[in-house]
Amino acid sequence: MSSIATDYLEFVNISKRFPGVLALDDINFSVPIGSVRALVGENGAGKSTLLKILSGAHPPTSGKLRIGKDNLIFENTTQAINAGVAVIYQELQLVPQLSIAENMYLGHLPEGSAFINFDQLWASTMDSMRQVGLGDVSPKVKVGRLSIGQRQMVEIAKALTRNAQIIAFDEPTSSLSSRETDVLFDIIRRLQKQDKAIFYVSHRLEEIFEISDSVTIFRDGRHVNTRRTLEGLTRDMIVKDMVGREIIDIYQYKARPVGETAIRVTDVTGPGITKPISFEVKKGEVVGCFGLVGAGRTELMRILFGAAPRYSGKVEVFGENVEINSPADAIQAGVMLCPEDRKKEGIIPILSVQENVNISSRRHHVRAGFIDRRWEYENVMDKIHALAIKTPSQRQLVRNLSGGNQQKVILARWLAEKIKVILLDEPTRGIDVGAKSEIYDIIYRLAGEGIGVVAVTSDLPEVLGISDRILVFSEGELAAEIPRRDATPENVLSYALPQESRKHFRESAITDRLVPA
Amino acid sequence: MSSQPESTAMPKGNSFARTMWSDFGMVIVLIILFIFCAVFVPRFFSPINMRALALAVSMTGMVACTMMLCLASGNFDMSCGAVIACSGVVCAVMINKAFPYVGNYSIYVGLFFALLVGFLVGLANGLIIAYARINALITTLATMQIARGIGYIICDGKAVGISQENFFYLGTGSWFMVPIPVYITVCCFIIFGIILERTSFGRNTLAIGGNEEAANLAGIRVAYHKLRLFIIHGLMSALAGIVLASRMTSGQPTTSQGFELDVISSCVLGGISMSGGLGSIWYAVSGVLIMGIVQNSMNLMNVPTFYQYVARGLILLMAVIFDRYKQRN
Predict the structure, then answer these.
(1) Does B278 touch chain A (CB under 8 A)?
(2) Do residues B270 and B286 touch, judged by C-beta distance below 8 A?
(3) d(CA B265, CA B34)
(4) Residue A72 CB burial class (10 angstroms; 0-12, 13-18, ≥19)
(5) CA pair distance A324, A305, nearest whole angstrom
């Protein structure tokens, strides 16, 4: 066991503020060499931000890093790389069109003259590839031909060529088969023996018990607890630390009468869904969909809305079978979607509030080919008033509105349609607290009118606060359905975490590709 | 996020002036340029020159109407010059072929087949770009060469004189001293101005250009919309080809080389964004006229052709830099 004296990396009073959000609040903890430290916490707890500070992608607002005897603040990624830090992200930072060797030396290719010295490049690449178990693959192979697992090894080898002392893994196993995971763990253990300091971020608590020797827990941007040994620690204790916060009631939930079925989904599959999904939502009901990032919730919403292909299964709306193959079909059938990424998929930034609100429903108000301009004006003014959209005029460009008001504009778009079911994907992401409760109000109002509401959210208190019923998704399947009275932060989160048993399913889904050397 | 955006704090009068400037700024530039040329360029404001100017811009004007829609939807078309040549040739050949059988009706046969050429090229462009999701620049570059090649093949590379003299009225006739092609162009401006401003088709075009994915998720059938857009644009190019054939009293396979670039430059000069989402008929009108006036004045002042190219390039560069600056504010 290492003592505090040999701690190699220390975070000292690290804070990071983004506009409107304190992402990291005075973080203090340290990591010794030769240790694998797990970082855990909910979505948005601050793990990713911490890694970004470590990698130099974001400089901290205040605080510093202590590495060895040096006090450092990284202004950019080059400084971090030079200080011996390597962060291996979930989305790998490799260029598929280039060879393994070129990828490893990207940015600092060995140059004999004006030209790249390829002999030297290949020789030194082979060296580090052998260390990560890629000794039988040629360094000339294009990265695009490697499996995901092999690409990850290339990333690790790249870190080794840069002589990294601190290596952080962000959700490394999320796209690996269990065999690839075993290989990865072997390499991590070897790195540990070479006295590197290793960070391991994962939602999979089983893995944390398997690979790490200590754990640091984050919640709401704060450091909650660091356990320097896993002895006597249980999964439940970690979960408790992850969620154990007081939940302030900004949700103002009130029970509503619930009617017949609004939407019934039977055995639906599609991209990102690993197991057929069935559920139903009643008229007047708010059903929350919780899950970790990549659990398949957004994918399911897009399938139901016709924005992604449906491979199988059927959908009934208000008791009638509907065939939805495009968003236009969905709207016709009374199914609306407020998409997850407001800026990319929701608003049309360079058009006015009026255009954005009327974009869909104006097709009902066309006379002799011309849009009814009076209706256009009246409808947008009516919606601005009804949803309290803060805009100087209906002609204001939507990109000039705040996030909350942009979200209201997207909601307003559907209010002039005959809504039977509304799918809300992360309706309050990036919105300040005041606007959030206004959005909740609108959600309850819609439900009160007999609409079936499906709200996807990654915010645990929110899903507990607003839902009549919670669907928990995990790894592309519906893991649990929990009525409001039975829902606790612990049981919702524990279903969202990937279970060991599900790994076997995944294994059969991902077959390793063989790569010719 | 909670703070109000700066623009909302702007006083109303200022924002009105700003809207006027962004909507009609180029129209103002056009008026100033026109007055300037009328005063300083000899013979510019003479009836004969005005007539020549109007006729010169009529072709670009027609095609600019639909090019505006293409650009506003975030797309692009390089094939319109070739379609003009090909449809002109087809028109001429079909009139001559049909004349012995149907007499005067042969003109309609010619018109039909010329428009069919435009329709087919537009259909091909639309299907490939919207449904196969191939880059618009490459697709229309290819169809441009195909259309140009077919034009040459049909007439064996030689101009085809048209035997039906009634057909020439379309391009060479005039009412009240104003050439008929100018009336056609004005009608196009009005029709497409209304389409863009007042119909779902026009508004959806801007929505698609502004954010294609958002437009799709708002229930607009994006691929089908683009297909219709390219077909309309193809038909419009064919119409321009017919008018040109009528003016030249023949179908000429070599005509309108680089015409597409003239049209695109005019649109962009007027303020239509290459990245889509921004468009107004006033932009197209002013862009086309500014380009036309500059070229006309340079001709009147005997500026050598080679220098004219340089001048037009510089004007275009200035316009897009100015536009960029305007958008950033």
Answers:
(1) yes
(2) yes
(3) 19
(4) middle
(5) 7
- Tens of pLDDT, residue by residue over A170-189, are 888 777 777 788 888 998 99
Query: Contacts of residue B2 in chain A, CB cutoff 8 Å?
Result: 20, 402, 432, 434-435
Domain A259-334+418-501 has CATH 3.20.20.150: no
Q: What residues does each domain of chain A span?
A: 4-243, 259-334+418-501, 341-417
A10-67 pLDDT per residue, tens: 999 999 887 666 789 899 999 998 899 999 887 668 888 899 899 888 899 999 999 8
Class of domain A4-243: alpha beta
Cross-strand bridge partners of residue A142: A99
What are the pLDDT digits (tens) for A321-332? 999 999 999 999
Task: Please report the sign of the dihedral spanned by the C-alpha atoms of residue A314, residue A319, residue A320, residue A325.
Answer: negative
User: Is B218 close to A327, i.e. CB distance below 8 A?
Assistant: yes
CA B328/CA B22 separation, integer angstroms: 12
For residue A249, the model assigns a pLDDT of 64
Mean pLDDT score of chain B: 88
Region A150-173: mean pLDDT is: 86
- Contact A359/B220, CB-based, under 8 Å? yes
Residue B116 CA from chain centroid, whole number: 19
Interchain CB distance below 8 Å, A348 and B277:
yes
Predicted-complex ipTM score: 0.82
Give yes or no on whether A4-243 and A259-334+418-501 have one common fold. yes
Mean pLDDT value across chain A: 85
The alpha carbon of residue A80 is apart from the nearest alpha carbon of chain B, in Å, by 30
Look at A19 and B19 and tell me if their CB atoms are within 8 Å: no
Grouping H, G, I as helix, E, B as strand and the rest as coil, residue B148 is: helix
B93 inside domain: yes
pLDDT the model gives residue A3 = 40
The answer to whether A290 faces chain B, any CB pair under 8 Å, is no
Among candidate residues A6, A56, A59, the one with its CA nearest the CA of residue A168: A56
Rounded to a whole number, what is the distance in Å from the CA of A363 to chain B's nearest CA? 7
Q: Where would I find the beta strands (DSSP E) of A202-328? A: 214-219, 222-227, 261-269, 277-282, 286-291, 312-317, 320-322
- The partner residue sitting opposite A431, judged by closest CB among B1, B19, B216, is B1
How does DSSP classify residue A2? -
- Tell me, what's the pLDDT at A20? 60
- Please report whether residue B34 resides in a domain: no
Do the domain assignments include residue B4?
Answer: no
Interface subset of A 435-454, CB within 8 angstroms of B: 435
The residue in chain A having the minimum alpha-carbon distance to the alpha carbon of residue B195 is: A370
Per the model's pLDDT, the better-predicted residue between A238 and B234 turns out to be B234
